[in-house]
Amino acid sequence: MTPLTETRPLLSPFPPSLLAGSRDGLAEVLASLTEAIGAASAARRPDGPLPAGTPAEVLAAATGALGPAELPAEGIGAEAALQLLATVLLEHGIDLSHPRAAAHLQPPSLAVAVAADTLASAGNASLDTYDSGPSAIAVERWLIGVLIRLAGLGERADGVLTPGGSLSNLMGLLLARDAAALRRGIDAREQGVGALPGPVVFCSELAHFSTHRACAALGLGEAAVHPVPVDARRRMRPDALAAALDGLGPDRTPVAVVATAGTTDFGSIDPLPEIAEIAAGHGMWLHVDAAYGFGALFSRRLAGRLAGLELADSITLDLHKTGWQPAATSVLLVSDTTAFTALDREVAYLNPTDDSEAGYDGLLGRSLQTTRRPDAVKAAATLLTYGRAGMGRMIDVCHDLARHAERRISDEPELELVSPAELTTVVFRYRGAGAYRTADPAAADELNGALRRRLLESGSALIGRTEAATGGPGSPKRVCLKFTLLNPTATTDDIDGLVDTVLDAGRTCARLIEEGAA
Questions:
Q1: 346: three-class secondary structure by DSSP
Q2: Crossing angle of helices 210-217/165-183, nearest 10°?
Q3: Model pTM?
């Protein structure tokens, strides 16, 4: 028999600081970030929220700074790599903390949330199983409990974090679909949706497009979506919803009503109590897309606008909108934890029954994901830091800024207010002045589109664009501009400067268009 040869211990060629989860690694993370930011602070920051130039120019400059798109044979080292990327991000990226960044529901991140997110990333825990991250599971369960109470849901409520509001809406409609199928004696998870006759999902005509995407992904088809007309305040009309439901034949399956608490463009909130009553009368699932509006619950002043939210079967909320979290931090809440039954999975290498019964279980059965990062850590750090009062003050400041913008727009003859500030957005149009004022709607559409592009190319301001019926419900949709104000450190002087920038750009565009036409 050949004797075993003696082997020497394997010594790693790498230092302990290689891995972020170690004590040395955490110290290395902090030191590396400090050095990279310090070196990049000398980088040229744009004067506005965006770098000046056309998209082709900006993207080419950023790509060129990175060098050839080839994996180097030898790396340049952590310090040089971080400094390079920090410089690229600063010189050629977006600055959401700039007071003239006002385009999307994309807020600047709170410093404490970014710090906590770095801490969570260093640990690299996952939420699927107990042995992948017990403390991270505890933090998410704590956060879900806080949000359940804020929403006013009952003791049987539950929830889960998701990678975005579109995925939260998808999951909410998945649970609604399976519940509707079970009412007809169909197990959609096992049998599919082919046996489900004529599925219908009702939502406002201003509902987020993710409702249509979800219906397509769930096998219901986008044709299943039935848009319900809105009133003059851009809210779903309960009478129109009731009439549509009453008109359904026996060959149709009402799956869900999707109410919106904070439409993307207008911040309008559907009348939730009335819609909940109609849905309950028809035995339907009520999903509330509160991705934008949920943050109003932090504010004592605005919370009443979400009355009736507690009547929902499921709720989408995005803390990376009116919660100032790094993306993505979305949540799906459900009124009854048994709704997650359709997502249950037992996998031998993850959650065998005997381990689960002994308490060694994770959150695999609440999500469509398996590996899932601990996004709750940054949100928990934020809520612990500021509490409801601190978060509410941020919401109130942004709402006050939007109200100031609304008043300023109303006072400007060159601007037309299209939608007032329900939450933190204001929709308006530039209509020109003097010889450059036009009564032609198509020409005005061209002018408003050109105005926004001029601001983008100059980098001086970042504002939104949408289409809206400016003459009331049913009127033709026109190109509009939009302020989405989510910077709690901005001032009314900043808003006045933003409006002045829009006016200057509008006058220049009107003159250039007129000269080009001549």
A1: coil
A2: 50
A3: 0.94
